[in-house]
Every structure is written in C-alpha cells, then in structure tokens.
C-alpha cells in the first residue's frame, strides 16, 4: 500500500496531577491510525492517473484517499484541514498536485513532498502532460508557470509568465478577467494553451512566440436587464484541439471553434498562422439547463472513433429531482439535428465527476471506462460508460434500450447497516499469520472502486476464506446488523475477511428474527455468543469444540437442526421487556444479566434457561440500563454477590445478584445528570468478579462528565466522589477502558473528533489528539447511529462509518497485531 500519514496530530502530554501513580503513563501510549478502508467522509473532488491507474479522492477537511491496483489504498493528509480547489496528477510520474482553498500548492509523491505558498488568489490550474510543468491562473488575469525539480521533489516558479496585458491585448480591459480555465491544446501541449476568462473571452496563446493567436467568445450580446453571463465550466471536445465546449452560469452551453495545428487531420480546423477573432459559436447545446436556470458545474468529454463520442454535463444544482441534474449527450463531428442524450438520475445532486479507465492485466488494448460521481452527501456512485455508450447508439435508431444503472460504492458485504459490534484483538503485541493465505485472500477481495477489469466478486473471497475455529483468528470483529444478521470477520489485515455469518431463516426455528440487533456479548473461552435485539429477544449461541470440520466461509441459516450441526452446539432463546442495551455473565454462577431501554434488569440462569428475577429501575429523566457488572464483595462482615447497575440517567445502584433486592440506601447520581455512555468497575486487576471493596472504584462516563466513585460507598447507596472531570468544549459520544499489562486506561471520543486518553482512577490526561473528518450526530429516537465504535481490551479501536469506511486505531505503543 501507499505510505499512510498518521491521522493524529502531535500529542500534547500532561503529567498526571494529584498523588503519584504507577498507572498508565505517556510512554505506554501512542494513539495512531493503523489503516483506513473505504471512502473517507466529506468526499469532494477527484483526480485520476491514467498511467498508473490511481484514483484520488479529496475531502473537505484536507485528506486525500488513493486507490490503486491490487486493492491498494492509501491516505494522505494536508498540513491544514482545508478543502481542495484543484486536484490533478502529473501523468506517468506518480505525483499528485493539490491546490488548497488557502492557495497552497502541495506536491504529493507517496507522502507530502513539498508545499508552495501563493499570496494571490488561485482561480485555475493545469498540468502540462508528459512534463513536470504546470500553469497557475489568478484572479487578476495573470498566469505563472511552476516546475517540479526531482530528487528531492521541489516546486520552483519559472520566469515565464503570461500577463493579462499580453494575453488580453485590449487597451480597455474589462473588470471581470478572472482566469477560470487553462487548457493546454491537445496534440500541441508544449506549444499552445487555451486561456478562458470568466467574462467569456477565450484566448489561444502561442507559448514559444509569447503572443495571442486567436480570440473568441467575447462581446456576446446580453439580454437587457439580465445578469452578466459568466463562464463556469469548460473542456475540449476534439482530440486535435479544434473545438472547446464552454458552460455558463445561466445554463447555456456553447461549442467554439479553435485554430488547430493539426490541419488536414481535422476538417473543422482553421488556419493558425494569423491572428483571428470570431464571436459566433459553432453550436449551442440545448439540454434544458438554461430553462431551469441551472449553472453548468462540470463537463467531461470522452472521445470514441465513429459516432459515439459523448459529453458528460453536470449541473450545479442542489435539487437532485431536476431532470437536468446530470446528462450525457452524443457529440460528434457531424452533429445531427436531433439531440441524442440521456439523463442520469441519482437520489441526490452531485458535486464532482470523473472518467476513469479500468486496467486489465491481460495483453489487451481494451480498457473499461467508468463514470464516477460524488454525491452531495459524500457517497460515491459509478456507471459503466460502455453501457451508456450502447444506450446512446441504440437511441439513434429510435429503439428502446434499457437504462444504465448506477452502482453505489460501499464496503463489500454491507448489505445491511451495523447496529452493534465487538472487537477481540490479539492479547500479544505480535501478529503471527500465514502470509500466503492472506495474500491470496486480498487478491480475491472484491474491489471497492473498479480500477481493474479482472477483479473477482465476493463469492471468490468467501470460498477462499478458511475458518476452523475462533482460536485461530487473532483479531476477531463481530457485527450485529439491522436485518438481525450476525457476521464474524477476521480483522488481521486492513481488508476485513468474512469467516462466519448467521442469518435469518424462519420463525419456527431457533433463527435470527430479522429485527435489528442492539447488544452483543462474546466469550471465546467457551465459546459463547449472546445477542440481544430491539424487541427484547436474547439468543445464546454455544459453539462446539474446535477445530471445526469446514474450512471455508460459512453462512448459517437457522438453528441447531438446519445446517449448523458442524459448529453450533445449541441455541437458546430468552425474552425481556424492551430493546436490549447491555448484557453480562457471571462465570461462577452461569447467570446472565440483561438490561433494556425500558429500565428492566432481567437475570437468567443459562442452564435452563430460567428467569430468576426481573426488576424495573424507575427514572424520571431517561430509562435504560447502559451497563451491568457482577462482583463479590464484603458487606457488613459477609461475602455478598452483587450486581452493579448503571442507568442512562447516570445513576448507579447495587442489587443482590441472587434476589434482585436493592442494597443500601438506593442509587447514587450526580447533581446534574446527563446521558450515561459507559460504566466500569475498577479493581486494579481488571476482573470485576474478583473485586474487593477496599481497592475498587466505579467509573461512570456520561456525555458531560467523568466520575469515579468509591465502590464500598456506592454499594451502600452513599455517594463518595473520588475523582471528577467535567467536559466543556464538546460532548463525549463514546468511552471505553483498555489495559496495558496491569495498568488500565480510559479512551474518550468527543463529538468534534477530539480523542483523550486518561489514566485511571485519577482521570489524569495523558494524551489529547483528534480524528480528522469525524463528525458525530446523535441518532434520532428509535433509529441507530451511522457510526459504530468498539474497543478491545488492549486499546485497539474499530470505527465504522455507515457503509463507506472502516478506521482502525491503536492506543498502545509497540502494538504490531495487524498485517
């Protein structure tokens, strides 16, 4: 893969305050992004390297994602979180040029190689292909030239410039002379360049003679009492540079004739050896944009021999329902009187488009073209350009061809959204895997974006994956989905490998119900999986001893009698009131505690299963049980089995785990409660079942604050706050503890992307960093968040955003557990 720049900024370290501690230290942690898979949030622009077959997607916050052959992906990051104005590859050099909104020009070759700062406002940009030179156009009408020196890669401004006074030539220059487009002339890139100003003036400039060859496009008549027409998009529509298509902010599209050096090869070329001026376009395209007052946002022309050359036009439109949002029209030398066009209708408006050419490893000249689009939401859509071409050709004969279908780019196997997840990572710091096995799986992994024509679908990957038992999987990721399905993934490499799936089959069987899953509990020692769903149904899956007889991906549909005998020993179904929010198991008594969103705590004996008791925890603010923990402690001289309950309104209370009776004086809670996210019993050894009240604490994390209570006092219903930390800048949206040897730490993620690592129990800040591009919005009532997060006991965090991206982070130093 390409080198990946860290997603975290340089950590600011603060020494723990208060009493000295032998707990987690700054030297123990190193928060960093391990890998990113998918499409980054906030996608905004494209660039494509046709030679190396690399697609780049820039985001609104200064990240650039790269996609290449062999499922390779890489993530670059600008020095500042700013969007790109222009993004373009220098072909055959592997260099990506990024012009940011603050007029910084960045050259990226695997990593950020150089940055060139410009004081003027950059309004246009173009690379001279097959060279290391590039044009920079400014708002004052001037153009400068930059060159990239090799080894080390460094940008240098050349002495050659194209000043406005020389290119425009008129004694009275109009006010609006912003350079909007710089187009090196095809087949004469090093000799001539087309300069288009925002006021509509089009100038062909001879580079060697430093003079204007022709002028066109200017002095266009404007209707009275109307706004001045301005250029908003342009591209060549001829392989020899004799025609250019220009789109305007009023929705008009004109095709202008340009003098070409390739006389004889292009019938419409005009003589280039004298200065010419014309103000009449060759053709006006009526695609309906003008009538709806939609500016022309972007245009791409693709050349095809014969009568299939076509122009893609994207309107700058917020209304996706507009019939003219995105169109493609046949555009040939001999344009017929009847316009042959096709409207491509997506569920949202688009902000960028690109034509990419998929590579083939076969000795073939054929390359599969695709149209790729970025929607306003940041989703990526892809069309097969060959199907669009076929539709347009068949439309000429007045037949009724089938409409091409778009493909939404999303993570493989994301047929339903993830609603809950668990991550069990390698307890050691070293990954021990079969390299050839994973190399073969990655080769068969279905592509996220089609940049190779010979890549295989997901069935090839599933048939290649081996699963002989959970003990062989060093990093296990388990997901519960909105359709009730359960998926198990081998997360030992950046591309998660599916190894086991449990699907719905029928209501008469011990199968999944099709209702969204809301909670998971997994114990690899048995192994045992417990799932809870939105209807209050709890299922206990007991697996047979390993190894399993099968050695490929398994999709199990149903209970113990239908296709699951080789892996599942039994499935038991329990029922509670309300959606399941939390679950925990007492291993010594084999009791299962289940908490629901209606405030019910149900404790079952898993041997039956039998309901032992059910207790409702009333709340005037917000019902719901966010966490449950079994432990044994000494209370008034007697050993007592206790169930500690954390509620959504930030209350904590202790129950007799055998009877469900409340212990002490009831619950403890803050003066100003906020929504609780997480509760954990801390005992210094990380085992709450063996906790002793003298050394144990209770950690409560809410959206607004952190609290560490004395366990012995909380059990008795007395509030004794040992440590407290309030949040001021933003709300916390996720929290988890993690372990480093015998030390325990706390990871916090805030709605603005800030990440904090704190020591426990003192809550001292160790490291503060951030995740660029993270933006959390709380889900609406009854729905699920698009962002799912879970953390292993060793501080490895998996973050899944919708169906588009997976990010994996590590909090501890020297963790090398991923391929």
Automatic annotation (TrEMBL):
- Which terms under GO biological process does the entry name? exocytosis; Golgi to plasma membrane transport
* UniProt keyword annotations, A-Z: Exocytosis
InterPro entries tied to this protein:
Lgl_C_dom, WD40/YVTN_repeat-like_dom_sf, WD40_repeat_dom_sf, WD40_rpt
Gene Ontology cellular-component terms for this entry are:
cytoplasm; plasma membrane
Domain (Lethal giant larvae (Lgl)-like C-terminal) spans: 698-815
Which GO molecular function entries does the Swiss-Prot or TrEMBL record give?
GTPase activator activity; myosin II binding; syntaxin binding
Q: Which Pfam families does the UniProt entry name for this protein?
A: Lgl_C
Write down the SUPFAM superfamilies for this protein, in alphabetical order: WD40 repeat-like
The record, for PANTHER family, names:
LETHAL 2 GIANT LARVAE PROTEIN, TRANSCRIPTION FACTOR WD40-LIKE FAMILY-RELATED
Task: Family membership, please give it.
Answer: Belongs to the WD repeat L(2)GL family.
**Name of protein:** Lethal giant larvae (Lgl)-like C-terminal domain-containing protein
Q: Highest lineage ranks of the organism?
A: Eukaryota, Viridiplantae, Streptophyta, Embryophyta, Tracheophyta
């Amino acid at each position: 893969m390409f080198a990946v720049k860290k997603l975290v900024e340089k950590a600011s370290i603060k020494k723990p305050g208060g009493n000295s501690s032998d707990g987690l230290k700054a030297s123990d942690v190193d928060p960093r992004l391990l890998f990113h898979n998918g499409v980054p949030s906030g996608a905004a622009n494209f660039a494509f390297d046709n030679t190396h077959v690399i697609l780049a997607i820039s985001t609104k916050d200064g990240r650039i994602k790269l996609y290449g052959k062999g499922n390779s992906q890489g993530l670059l990051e600008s020095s500042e979180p700013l969007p790109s104005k222009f993004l373009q590859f220098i072909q055959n050099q592997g260099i990506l040029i990024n012009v940011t909104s603050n007029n910084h020009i960045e050259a990226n070759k695997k990593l950020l190689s150089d940055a060139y700062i410009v004081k003027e406002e950059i309004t246009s940009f173009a690379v001279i292909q097959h060279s290391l030179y590039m044009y920079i156009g400014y708002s004052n009408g001037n153009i400068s030239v930059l060159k990239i020196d090799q080894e080390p890669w460094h940008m240098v401004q050349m002495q050659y410039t194209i000043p406005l006074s020389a290119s425009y030539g008129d004694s009275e220059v109009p006010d609006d002379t912003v350079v909007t487009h710089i187009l090196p002339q095809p087949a004469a890139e090093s000799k001539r360049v087309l300069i288009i100003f925002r006021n509509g003036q089009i100038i062909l400039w001879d580079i060697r003679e430093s003079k204007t060859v022709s002028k066109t496009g200017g002095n266009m008549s404007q209707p009275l009492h109307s706004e001045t027409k301005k250029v908003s998009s342009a591209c060549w529509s001829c392989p020899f540079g004799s025609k250019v298509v220009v789109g305007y902010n009023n929705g008009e599209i004109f095709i202008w004739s340009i003098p070409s050096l390739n006389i004889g090869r292009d019938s419409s070329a005009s003589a280039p050896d004298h200065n010419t001026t014309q103000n009449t376009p060759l053709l006006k395209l009526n695609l309906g944009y003008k009538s709806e007052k939609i500016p022309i946002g972007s245009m791409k022309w693709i050349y095809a021999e014969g009568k299939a050359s076509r122009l893609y036009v994207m309107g700058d439109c917020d209304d996706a329902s507009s019939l003219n949002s995105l169109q493609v029209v046949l555009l040939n030398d001999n344009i017929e009187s009847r316009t042959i066009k096709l409207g491509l209708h997506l569920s949202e408006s688009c902000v960028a488009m690109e034509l990419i050419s998929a590579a083939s490893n076969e000795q073939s000249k054929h390359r599969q073209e695709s149209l790729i689009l970025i929607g306003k939401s940041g989703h990526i859509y892809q069309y097969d350009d060959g199907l669009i071409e076929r539709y347009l050709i068949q439309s000429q004969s007045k037949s009724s061809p089938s409409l091409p279908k778009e493909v939404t780019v999303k993570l493989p196997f994301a047929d339903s959204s993830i609603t809950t997840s668990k991550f069990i990572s390698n307890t050691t710091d070293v990954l021990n895997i079969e390299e050839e096995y994973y190399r073969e799986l990655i080769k068969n992994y279905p592509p996220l974006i089609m940049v190779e024509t010979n890549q295989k679908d997901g069935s090839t990957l599933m048939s290649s994956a081996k699963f002989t038992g959970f003990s062989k999987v060093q990093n296990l990721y388990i997901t519960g989905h909105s359709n009730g399905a359960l998926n198990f993934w081998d997360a030992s490499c950046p591309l998660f490998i599916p190894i086991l799936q449990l699907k719905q089959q029928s209501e008469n069987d011990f199968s999944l119900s099709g209702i969204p899953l809301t909670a998971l509990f997994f114990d690899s020692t048995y192994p045992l999986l417990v799932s809870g769903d939105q209807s209050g149904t709890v299922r206990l899956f007991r697996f047979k001893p390993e190894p399993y007889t099968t050695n490929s991906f398994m999709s199990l549909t149903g209970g113990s009698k239908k296709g699951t005998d080789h892996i599942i020993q039994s499935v038991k179904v329990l029922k509670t009131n309300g959606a399941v929010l939390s679950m925990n198991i007492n291993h010594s008594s084999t009791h299962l505690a289940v908490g629901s969103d209606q405030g019910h705590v149900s404790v079952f004996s898993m041997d039956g299963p039998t309901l032992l008791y059910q207790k409702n925890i009333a709340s005037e603010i917000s019902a719901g049980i966010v966490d449950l923990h079994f432990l044994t402690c000494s209370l008034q001289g007697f050993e007592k089995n206790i169930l500690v309950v954390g509620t959504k309104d930030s209350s904590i209370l202790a129950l007799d785990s055998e009877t469900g009776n409340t212990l002490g004086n009831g619950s403890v809670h803050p003066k100003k409660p906020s929504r609780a996210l997480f509760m954990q019993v801390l005992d210094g050894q990380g085992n709450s079942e063996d906790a002793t009240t003298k050394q144990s604490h209770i950690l409560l994390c809410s959206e607004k604050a952190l609290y560490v209570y004395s366990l012995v006092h909380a059990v008795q219903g007395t509030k004794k706050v040992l440590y407290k930390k309030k949040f001021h800048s933003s709300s916390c949206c996720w929290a988890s503890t993690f372990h480093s040897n015998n030390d325990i730490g706390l990871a916090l993620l805030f709605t603005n992307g800030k990440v904090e690592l704190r020591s426990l129990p003192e809550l001292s800040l160790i490291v503060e960093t951030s995740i660029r591009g993270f933006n959390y919005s709380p889900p609406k009532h009854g729905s699920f968040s698009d962002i799912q997060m879970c953390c292993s006991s060793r501080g490895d965090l998996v973050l899944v955003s919708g169906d588009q991206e997976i990010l994996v982070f590590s909090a501890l130093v020297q963790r090398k557990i991923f391929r």
